[in-house]
From TrEMBL:
Residue ranges annotated for the Amino acid transporter transmembrane domain, each copy included: 10-65, 120-449
InterPro entries xref list: AA_transpt_TM
Topology term for the membrane: Multi-pass membrane protein
Keywords, sorted A to Z: Glycoprotein, Membrane, Transmembrane, Transmembrane helix
Keyword Transferase carried by entry: no
Source domain of life: Eukaryota
Pfam families: Aa_trans (PF01490)
Official protein name in the record: Amino acid transporter transmembrane domain-containing protein
Localization, UniProt: Membrane
Transmembrane segments: 12-35, 47-72, 139-159, 203-223, 235-252, 272-293, 305-328, 348-372, 393-413, 466-488
Location, primary (coarse class): membrane
Family designation: Belongs to the TMEM104 family.
Keyword Membrane: yes
Amino acid sequence: MPVTEAGDQYSVWVGLIYIFNLIVGTGALTLPAAFAKAGWGLSTISLVFLAFMSFMNATYVIETMACANAVYKWKRLQIIKRESIRDHDSDEEQSQHALGDLEEPLVCGDSIPSRYYSLDRRIELGEMANLFFNKTGRIMFFCTLCVYLYGDLSIYAAAVAKSIMDVVCSTAPSNVTEPIDWHELPCFNTSSVSAHPYSRMDVYRIALLTFVGAMGPFVFFNVQKTKYLQLFTSGMRWLAFAIMISLALRLLCVRGPQGHPPVFSVTGLPQLFGACVYSFMCHHSLPGLVSPIRGKNRLGLHFALDYTLITAFYLLLAFSGAFAFAHLNDLYTLNFVPTDNENIFLEIVEYFLALFPVFTLSTSFPIIAITLRNNLQSLFLDVPRLESYNFALRKLFFPLITVIPPLLLTYFLEDIGVLIEFTGSYAGTGIQYLIPTFLVMTARRHCVNLLGLGVINKYRSPFSNVAWAVFVLLWAFVCLVLVSVNIIEKKL
């Protein structure tokens, strides 16, 4: 796969907006309720800790990507050397030019960064797994990744379609709780007997097809093509969160604290973790977002600033909501439905917040879809020779098998609660903690054997000590236990 073209690049700040959009989604709307249940003290500590763990594993992904770039450059150097030996007279000058920015591994000192290591070439997690994992590891990796990404796309599509349906259709009666009743409800309250009303399910499916039809074509392109969509929806996202935080703070000033969450409540910890699984997830799409960034020298610092901003934002949202409302819905936007429908401003706010998942997930859907497409190509194709494959296979087949399965699943199965639990919990733990840690450990060993100890990776994670990796693995085990407890509690 070629190095990203200069015209396809964007500034580090645009890249951070992409990452912010990817992390801050509908998962943030479940934080206030979980925050209040676990207690504001325990929740604050947990949220900061989870942000740190997510950031640590993000640095692991970046380091592994640099290692993969080094491996490809080393292989290219060996090919050039072999060609030079075969035809020394005619190819010597060309070979010296081709070596260009490469150097012999052993010429680097302990303090000299190697030009082998870079982030210029986009190498997806699947391609890294092919480089550094054995056969068993690759199978486990792709199973985990595909379950997570297909599940994500299905969840996003269903959430957007249901949000549109709730805005378009009349309010469902409060006594309707069973799914079969929900399916049969007419979308519009009408007294006409002759006219066959659209059911809520009909409107849901129309909204689903419209959403996939609008966002699905982005899977045929690269992340850079979504730049203006990202910037627009980022503004809508900030506006929605600003409205929710402002209204909650206004209620606190006018009525005083209505909610009285405890300081510590261990019983709410499993639910809090479940809410945080999506809240800091970006690792699966980092390679596609990082490689086009210009000026990556201080990338680690910029990532740290991005994570700090997101953590502060989450804390403000959760604190204001936990103390402003006596009762918090699992989806925070439901707390802002106005009681006075004659107030035009409040009615506009109601509709805007009801459509919030549409704004957020419309941004994330193309990125997730492109990530899944690239990793499916890594699984079935030889990525360095990608351009040699048939056009229909590269440009049509893989994009279609990326978006069609989630569309079919959510078209016939709109209740995907079990999928959310499994995808966001078990597969999410694997994507956020286990895969980056195992990748960076094997990548370091591979590059040391290949290049020698003297070649320095300037993108090496600041958490390079093996003790940090062991700590992450232990934490992943604790996460799986917490998730299992949370699911069992819901079943009882």
